[in-house]
Amino acid sequence: EFNLATQEDDHTLRELLASIPMQGNIELAFAREPSYFGASGVDGEFVQVVAARDKNAQKIIGMGSRAIRNCYIDGHVTGTGYLSALRLLPEYRGKAAILARGYRFFRELHEDRRARFYLTTIAADNERAIEVLVSQRAGIRVYFYMGRY
What is the bridge-based pairing of β-strands 117-119 and 2-4? Predict the structure, then answer.
């Protein structure tokens, strides 16, 4: 099941984020110590963390963050979304339904219309993430390549 994580999930989110590094020539693990939610303000003024839970195992198996920050776009203050911290335990990968259901949950959250559009950053050599996110499989919205930084 998918729902919004709470402060009670903070420790588990930190463990999950730190234990699943971004893949590539260099593996990079992110840590948000001592508090996941305390550090989430760097992503935006409004942050929601989605938790994917295996009800049978009674544990969080994946996560993703939706953050909104007001930015100037064409001279107007515009809510801009940032989807990040997408992680899924290795033993649950390859199950397209999980990713598709997670993105459907993000779409439901988007119904609040806080953001006009969303950005996601992916390490340039994280080929697996790029392949999955730009494939348009499993009902994932289209990602457009905007450049490198």
Answer: unpaired
CA distance linking residue 140 with residue 19, whole number of Å: 25
Q: Which amino acid is at 114?
A: R
Residue-wise pLDDT tens digits, 4-45 = 999 999 999 999 999 988 777 787 888 899 999 999 999 999
Pairwise CA distance, residues 144 & 132, whole Å: 13
Asked whether the beta carbons of 47 and 40 are under 8 A apart, the reply is yes
Which residue reads 């033993």 in tokens? 91
Rounded to whole angstroms, how far apart are CA atoms 122 and 87? 12
Q: What are the tens digits of pLDDT across the range 46-73?
A: 999 999 999 999 999 999 999 999 999 9
Strand order across the 59-73 sheet: 2-4, 46-54, 59-73, 76-88, 117-119
Give the CA distances from residue 130 to residues 42, 63, 119, 121, in Å, rounded to whole numbers and listed in that order: 24, 17, 14, 10
CA distance 91 to 98: 12
